[in-house]
Structure formats: structure tokens, C-alpha cells
Design goal:
about 190 residues, alpha/beta, four-stranded mixed beta sheet, about 30% helix, about 20% strand
């Protein structure tokens, strides 16, 4: 599941290789590779259990998220930078996760200047080539914080994201890895 964030980053404008993955895994979020390929990204499994994602112009797709709800926040970020309009459906259960993830994604992408329509079970996202810098709400949700960090890579100026420490739930070293891959981040402790 955590590989999805950096595979998305590679698809949006870089070249990223993730190692030590099992191509035969039964984990549902493995679908990220196929979905990114459908967007038009160059995704290639390599013989050593690694996968490489490189960017190409992306095109909007329709996504049924019924079996992959945890991928919706990062797929929404990919959709935001894909030509055309992406529809994500089958994700109503995201409203009862750590946050209402559909609402959280809609709010944050809208703050970045992306046109997003929230539906009861999904999102409609009109892709754009440019976003603006903004202050984003992390909603104390690890997947929202990590997804918005990937979106921030496309912003012209720094983006502020609250609730940095929510990543400890699933990927405590996310920002360390983000930095190793060239992302810049600073943690500002505002106290309680």
C-alpha cells in the first residue's frame, strides 16, 4: 500500500524504483500498478521484485474503488494532473475512515486549485497542468497527509500540510523516504 505514494510521484514527474515487492502478492492495493498504467504512466515490473514508474502525459480514466478504497486519496492526486475528467466511484466507505476521506481529498485539492466534485460514493476530478500553493488540512489522517505531500511536489511554492505525525499510523518514515527521493520538507512544531 505504501509503495503507491512513490509510484504515483514517479508517474507524475519523475523516475522512481521501488524494491522488495512481491508481484504475486494478493494484497488488493497492488492494483496501483495497473491503474497507473491505465492513466498512461510507464510502469514496469523488473525481474528482481522491483517496480519502476516513470512519467508520461497522463489521461483521465474511470475508477471503481470498491476493492481498493485506501488508494483513493493518492489516485485522486494522480487524477488531478491527468488530462480530462476522472470519475472515482464505489468509495462510500471512505467516509468512515480516520477522516471522511472523500471530503478531505475534495477540500484539499480544491484549495490547490483543482476542480473537484464530491459525490456520495466518490469524486469527479477535472485534471489540470498547474496548481497553486496553499495551506492544506491533514485531517489527522496518514493517507491524506502522504497524498497531499505528493500533490505538493507539483506546486510552484511551498505547501503547508497539518498533522504531520499522523503518518506514524502506517508509514513513520514516509518523509525520510520522501527526502531521499528528492522531496523537500520541513517540520514546524507549533506546540499544543
Amino acid at each position: 500500500s505504501q509503495a503507491a505514494f512513490f509510484l504515483a510521484a514517479g508517474s507524475l514527474g519523475g523516475d522512481c524504483v521501488i524494491t522488495h515487492l512481491n508481484p504475486a502478492s494478493k494484497q488488493g492495493d497492488k492494483a496501483i500498478a495497473d491503474i497507473l498504467s491505465r492513466f498512461g504512466a510507464n510502469i514496469a515490473w523488473q525481474g528482481d521484485g522491483s517496480i519502476r514508474a516513470t512519467s508520461t502525459p497522463l489521461k483521465a480514466i474511470d475508477i471503481d474503488a470498491s476493492n481498493i478504497p485506501d488508494l483513493v486519496p493518492i489516485l485522486s492526486v494522480v487524477a488531478a494532473f491527468s488530462e480530462g475528467t476522472t470519475t472515482i466511484s464505489g468509495a462510500a466507505r471512505l467516509r468512515i475512515k480516520e477522516s471522511d476521506r472523500l471530503s478531505a481529498v475534495c477540500d484539499n485539492l480544491t484549495r490547490l486549485g483543482v476542480e473537484v466534485t464530491e459525490k456520495p460514493d466518490g469524486l469527479i476530478i477535472k485534471g489540470t497542468n498547474t496548481i497553486k500553493s496553499a495551506s492544506l488540512e491533514g485531517y489527522n489522517d496518514h493517507r491524506i497527509v502522504m497524498s497531499m505531500a505528493i500533490a505538493a511536489l507539483k506546486a510552484p511554492e511551498p505547501v503547508l500540510i497539518t498533522d504531520y505525525y499522523s503518518i506514524n499510523k502506517s508509514y513513520p518514515t514516509f518523509f525520510e523516504d520522501f527526502g531521499k527521493l528528492g522531496g523537500e520538507f520541513y517540520v514546524i512544531n507549533m506546540g499544543k
